Amino acid sequence: DLVCFWEEAATAGVGPDNYSFSYQLEGEPWKPCRLHQAPTARGLVRFWCSLPTADTSSFVPLELHVTAASGASRHRRTIHVNEVVLLDPPARLVARRADEGGHVVLRWLPPPGAPMASLIRYEVNISAENAAGSAQRVEILDGRTECLLSNLRGGTRYTFMVRARMAEPSFGGFWSAWSEPASLLTASDLDPLILTLSLVLVLILLLLAVLALLSHRRTLKQKIWPGIP
Where exactly are the transmembrane stretches of this chain (predicted)? Predict the structure, then answer.
């Protein structure tokens, strides 16, 4: 669907009946579109209309025109539908530790109902727990729905989100909302193999020290407790 809207300050007695919205595809007659009204979180009023799917062809100029009840022109714009695409957020984001230490693998699904998934670009948001304002963003090549993240701090809980937009130059538009987050605690910076080998080495050194003491116990005993003449 193609939804067209504009926002303005709320005015008593001003509603959809005070405006008319019309549109024209190249080579076709002008058509009206029924306006609706809704308040916004910023205290403004949003006027909007939804164009029929049959009239939202890509790569074809679409002219939009808003006029006041007096006949005065309020807004006029020509667009291409393929250049104002707003996708739904990607779905089912999953984070897991990679087989290689310190790396994290992210996987997700393209936005539901999105056309031409190979032409979708993604951006990943990475934020560490208790590190406000230090979020990182990584862009993913068109069409890829997974990425391998490295250089993350060990033993830290990270939260990941991903968003999508159609890739240029054939398409354009806006970044989608962020996906549902996925969290993961990264592995400790201490390599388990190195930790195990270090422990084995310490045990070997302790064993050698004990054996050395046992082999020289008589000499040590005489030095510590010399015989009484």
Answer: 193-214
Domain that holds residue 200: 190-220
DSSP assignment string, 156-219: -EEEEEEEEEEPTTT--EEPPPPPPPEEEEPPPSS-HHHHHHHHHHHHHHHHHHHHHHHHTHHH
Q: For residue 90, what pLDDT is reported? A: 95
72-131, pLDDT tens digit by residue?
Answer: 999 999 999 988 989 999 999 999 988 766 789 999 999 988 878 888 999 999 998 876
List the structure tokens of 11: 């005015």
Which pLDDT value is given to residue 224?
A: 62
| 136 in the same domain as 99 | yes
Q: Domain total for the chain?
A: 3
Structure tokens at 206: 């302790």
Q: Which residues contact 141 (CB under 8 A, 6 or more apart)?
A: 121
- CA diameter of the chain: 129
21, 53, 83 — which closes off a domain?
83
For residues 46-73, average pLDDT: 91
Q: At what angle do helices 192-215 and 217-224 cross, to 10 degrees?
A: 70
> Helix, strand or coil for residue 229?
coil
